Amino acid sequence: MSSLNPYLSFQNNAREAMEYYRSVFGGDLQVSTFGEFPGMTQVPAENDLVMHSQLTTPDGFVLMGSDTPTGMSYTPPAGVSVSVSGDDEAKLQGFWDALAEGGTTVMPFEVPPWGGRFGMLTDRFGIDWMVAYSPAQQ
C-alpha cells in the first residue's frame, strides 16, 4: 500500500501551524524537534523547532510539516494547493470556516458552474487550500 501526503514547510512556526490544523481537522499530532536528534542543527536556538510533524485525522488525512532550519533555503509555498473534498457539506463548510479564519479568500466557497460547492483560500500560514463539496450520487 502506498500513500501521497502533503508535506508543508514553514519558517519557525510549524508547531503553531500543525496544532492549528489539528484544531481544524481533529486527530493525532506527532511532533519531533531538532533537539531530539543531536547534530540535526548547528544552531542551538533551533532545538525546539519542528524537524518533523505528522497529523493523522479521523477522516484518514495525513498532513506533515516541518520548520526550515538555518542553512536551508526557504521559499514560501507557491504553485501548490492542499485540496480537501468530499460529500459531507457541513463538515467541508466547517473546514472552510476554520481555514479561512485569519486567511485570505481567493474564491468564496460557493456554487461553481459545475455544481456542488468550491472555494480557494490562503490560510494565515500562507498555505493555499481548495475545498470542494460534491454531493453523493444517488
Structure, described:
The protein has 138 residues and is of the alpha/beta class. The protein has two domains: 7-67, 2,3-Dihydroxybiphenyl 1,2-Dioxygenase, domain 1, CATH 3.10.180; 82-133, Signal recognition particle alu RNA binding heterodimer, srp9/1. 17% of the residues lie in helices and 34% in strands. The chain starts with 6 loop residues before the first strand and ends in a 5-residue tail after the last strand. InterPro entries: Glyas_Bleomycin-R_OHBP_Dase, PhnB-like. Residues 4-131 form the PhnB-like domain.
Annotate the secondary structure layout.
Elements lengths: L6 E4 L3 H12 L2 E6 L16 E7 L5 E6 L14 E5 L2 H12 L3 E7 L6 E6 L5 E6 L5
Parallel strand pairs: 1-4, 5-8
Antiparallel strand pairs: 2-3, 3-4, 6-7, 7-8
Helix pairs in contact: 1-2
Pfam family, one: 3-dmu-9_3-mt
Organism: Microbacterium ulmi
Protein name: VOC family protein
